[in-house]
Design goal:
Number of domains of chain B: 1
Order of helices and strands of chain B: HHHHEEEHHHHEHHH
Largest sheet of chain B: 2 strands, antiparallel
Oligomer: heterodimer
Shape of chain A: globular
Number of strands of chain B: 4
Strand content of chain B: 5-15%
Number of domains of chain A: 1
Structural class of chain A: mainly alpha
Helix content of chain B: over 70%
Helix content of chain A: over 70%
Radius of gyration of chain B: 19 Å
Order of helices and strands of chain A: HHHHHHHHHHHHH
Number of helices of chain A: 13
Radius of gyration of chain A: 19 Å
Structural class of chain B: mainly alpha
Largest sheet of chain A: none
């Protein structure tokens, strides 16, 4: 736990943010809906940080991140529902179970597919994402509780500002420390040049698998938090577009930049949900016409991400 | 014998779907070959093709053979504009920005077209230009049947493929395309106009997707602005299956994907049909990452 002491400035900052948010929530300044969105931002940031570890730091392209997010969500929701663990005290265990499940699945499929590179890895993970989606759609054949294509209903609402905040901040600090550790150094090496990394004795296969599993573990925990926030899961929540959402956040934040991911997550979710509040209902349909245009514009204006000052390489 | 004829009928149905996938996959494989870009918006050009044809047939009563040419021209224009407006400014940006832009273009086309003022968000029926007739045939004691829709699809696909081969292997522009996809810098040094060739590739690919859209509309007469997403992804997988950048690979890949999808729906369950293709993809990528017809390379 020494690392918590070393990160005390960050923890103080986080505590400050928490107090402000709590005051805003309790004084009734913001609506229930905005409170939910605020919690959702933390969840998205956590999952996107997972993708950042995989893609931004280790350079392994993934278009199927939402699948692991979904695996975490379904695992945790299923455990809570079947074992009746609907108390806040059991939540850390179920969150961990969701994360570990996602990490294990990532490890199993990572062994074969991480041999692929770039776009081919992207297509393989995209394929895996759709496979998982098909599995969720047919999940009622395994257990009625999972709901299949009708969706998983009646999940206990356990996620609160406190739980999300503590879990997200804790895992972000852990991630930051791993990135600056020996393993993180290996990951960044592999991103820069895989062949050269192997030549200086880095076990690239193992390191890639580790980064992939850890990133997916974060997605799994985030998914579990998501399940207990919205209390309803549907296979379409975890499709290809969701994976793209995470990817957009990582790119906008600048690859390999945790602070950037946090800002980008806040801006992206805030923008999408903000438009829903600001725009009058008769032109709400136009929202998804403007968002892609904005995205294309952003890519032309800042191809290396909103937050990146230097010109990295993608 | 009854079993055999059922299988043969299903295979024919699969080839019908596979022919459409092949037409879309060609555009993917050509664009990927030249720009190394997974053009996610390609599936939406396919959707545009179906909608253009719908309007040409139902509003203007255009005869079907003219519809093909008009739709191809309109889709080629859409492909040209897409490349010029969205992708060309990012030619030197990181590849990932280009990919995100492609997703942006795709979402834009889908949601823009789903506006009531443009197309419609609902499913609409595609007007069949002729009545469906079924022909029964018996070969060596096995009965099977096929429809005139299937004949049309196979005929149009074969004709389009022949045309594409002529363009790619018998014209100067086609040679330029192959040269650019082989080595862009050297091709530029040899005096090939890269911008022009890239535009042309997009136009040819989009025209093929447009044909695919019409055929899809005729075969499965329900169209929707989001109809391009899954066929788009599956066609890209077909292109990877056959070996990305290889023309005949895309055709064979498309047919394999179409047949396996229909076979799985017929013998297992239609809810598994999206899953099986990705299982095949994973196997192919692991055994031969460069695809069925790709050159043997150690690492992809």
């Amino acid at each position: 736990m020494r690392f918590l002491l070393e990160s005390r400035k960050l923890i103080l900052l986080a505590a400050g943010i928490y107090v402000v948010l709590k005051l805003l929530f309790n004084l009734g300044i913001v609506s229930e809906y905005i409170q939910q969105i605020t919690i959702y931002v933390f969840i998205v940031v956590l999952a996107a940080t997972g993708l950042n570890v995989i893609y931004g730091y280790t350079g392994q392209f993934s278009l199927g991140h939402a699948a692991f997010y979904g695996i975490g969500a379904y695992t945790s929701a299923y455990l809570v529902k079947t074992l009746g663990l609907d108390s806040v005290f059991a939540l850390p265990a179920t969150l961990l179970a969701g994360g570990i499940m996602a990490g294990l699945v990532a490890c199993v499929i990572g062994i074969p597919i991480l041999r692929l590179r770039d776009d081919f890895l992207g297509i393989a993970t995209l394929g895996f994402g759709i496979l998982v989606r098909v599995f969720f759609d047919n999940s009622d054949r395994i257990s009625e509780t999972l709901g299949g294509s009708r969706g998983f209903t009646g999940i206990a609402k356990l996620t609160s500002l406190e739980t999300t905040f503590v879990v997200t901040v804790f895992l972000l600090i852990v991630t930051r420390n791993i990135i600056s550790s020996r393993y993180g150094l290996f990951w960044r090496c592999i991103k820069d040049d895989e062949t050269a990394s192997a030549s200086i004795g880095i076990d690239t296969t193992r390191m890639k698998l580790m980064a992939f599993s850890y990133g997916c573990f974060l997605a799994g925990v985030a998914g579990a938090l998501y399940a207990h926030l919205y209390t309803f899961l549907h296979p379409s929540n975890f499709d290809f577009l969701k994976s793209i959402d995470f990817l957009i956040i990582v790119i906008l934040g600048g690859m390999g930049n945790i602070a950037g991911t946090i800002w980008a997550g806040l801006i992206w979710v805030g923008f999408i949900e903000g438009l829903r509040i600001v725009l009058p209902s008769n032109i709400l349909d136009l929202r998804w016409v403007f968002i892609p245009l904005l995205l294309i514009g952003l890519m032309m204006w800042r191809p290396y991400g909103l937050m990146s000052r230097k010109k990295g390489h993608g | 014998m009854e079993h055999a004829s059922y299988i043969i009928s299903q295979v024919i149905n699969g080839l019908q779907l596979g022919a459409v996938y092949a037409l879309i996959a060609l555009g993917y494989t050509m664009v990927y070959g030249i720009l190394r870009l997974i053009n996610f918006a390609h599936g939406d050009i396919f959707m545009l093709g179906a909608f253009f044809a719908y309007f040409l047939i139902s509003r203007f009563g255009m005869p079907i053979y003219l519809v093909f040419f008009a739709t191809m021209a309109m889709c080629a224009l859409a492909g040209y504009l897409m490349e010029k407006l969205a992708y060309k400014p990012l030619r030197n940006a990181p590849k990932i920005s280009l990919l995100i832009t492609a997703v942006g273009v795709s979402l834009f086309l889908e949601y823009f077209c789903s506006l009531k003022a443009v197309f419609t968000p609902d499913y609409i029926g595609f007007p069949r230009p002729f009545e469906v007739k079924t022909y029964d045939l018996s070969l060596g004691g096995i009965d099977f049947s096929f429809t005139n829709v299937q004949i049309l699809i196979f005929a149009v696909t074969s004709f389009t493929l022949a045309l594409l081969y002529l363009i790619i292997y018998r014209t100067k522009q086609g040679t330029a395309m192959r040269a650019v996809s082989h080595d862009q810098e050297t091709a530029a040094l040899m005096g090939i106009n890269i911008d022009h060739t890239v535009s042309l590739t997009f136009m040819v690919g989009a025209a093929l997707a447009g044909v695919g859209g019409i055929l899809y509309g005729i075969a499965y007469p329900q169209i929707n602005v989001f109809m391009g997403i899954m066929p788009g992804i599956k066609s890209f997988i077909a292109a990877v299956l056959g070996g990305i950048g290889i023309i005949h690979g895309a055709v064979v890949g498309g047919l394999i994907v179409g047949v396996s999808e229909v076979i799985v729906s017929a013998f297992l369950s239609s809810t598994y049909r999206d899953g099986v293709i990705f299982v095949i993809l994973l196997i192919v990528l692991l055994v031969k990452p460069s695809g069925l017809f790709g050159k043997r390379i150690d690492k992809v």
